[in-house]
Design goal:
Blueprint: E1 2-10, H1 17-24, E2 32-37, H2 44-48, E3 58-62, E4 68-72, H3 73-89, E5 92-98, E6 112-113, H4 115-126, E7 130-136, H5 139-142, H6 145-149, E8 154-160, H7 167-179, E9 184-187, H8 194-203, E10 208-210, H9 211-223
């Protein structure tokens, strides 16, 4: 079992240097980050041919070119499962699925970290009641955040912010979120960066949870 090698499966394609850098900023420098994409090997035309069927099937990812694409979760699940299995066969101790969506059809056994589960349990622990603000990449996802995040004693408010947006768009979304007066904000996509979080904090002074950093810290705990 290789305890110094960290598997990462992004829902789009590799390389994703920004995500790798965000993870590297959190985990020990002793760990080697091996990042692969669920859509590796596909052409852009093939990716464009797998749009989501509806809001529940919608995922957003940035391609290595920097282009943002909407893709089908159903297609991603099958291809991500194959990458996770490859890592397991190669003896990788822990694999991180770099997406905050829920993937009930992916393998739940073994050392696979699902950021959605990590984020939900963290938020339950630190916000037993109050108002939760959620940034999500797509309008379709924002429309479904209540179903994903709401629980007894917690009101959910959402703002759409596409990863890769310029500073002006991030600032506008941050101002919109601050006006909703949440007690805690979750940046519910692995493509949001620490730079995005820093800009959000200019408008919203409360706690902000960054998905990629939170998930990476869990991997750090598992490998250390």
């Amino acid at each position: 079992m290789d305890t110094k090698r960290m598997g990462v499966v992004v829902i789009g394609q590799s390389p994703r240097p920004t995500i790798a850098a965000e993870i590297a900023a959190v985990v020990s420098p002793d760990f080697r980050i091996d990042l692969r994409g669920a859509l590796d090997g596909m052409t852009r035309a093939e990716i464009d041919a797998i749009p989501p069927q509806d809001g529940a099937d919608a995922l957003f990812t940035l391609l290595p070119s920097g282009d943002g694409v909407r893709i089908s979760k159903k297609v991603v699940e099958a291809r991500a499962a194959a990458q996770i299995a490859r890592f397991a066969e190669e003896g990788v101790a822990v694999t991180l699925l770099a997406c905050t969506g829920k993937f009930p059809n992916l393998p739940q056994a073994g050392q696979v970290i699902f950021p959605s589960a990590v984020l939900h349990k963290l938020v339950e622990a630190v916000l037993p009641q109050g108002r939760l603000g959620v940034f999500s990449p797509l309008a379709e996802q924002s429309a479904l955040i209540h179903k994903k995040w709401e629980r007894a004693g917690v009101e959910v408010v959402g703002v759409t912010l596409q990863p890769g947006s310029d500073d002006a768009a991030v600032d506008a979304a941050a101002t919109e979120m601050a006006a909703l007066k949440p007690d805690l904000v979750v940046m519910d996509c692995m493509s949001y960066s620490s730079a995005n979080k820093a800009r959000v904090r200019r408008s919203f002074k409360g706690p902000v949870v960054l998905g990629v950093a939170t998930a990476a810290r869990m991997v750090e705990e598992m490998l250390s």
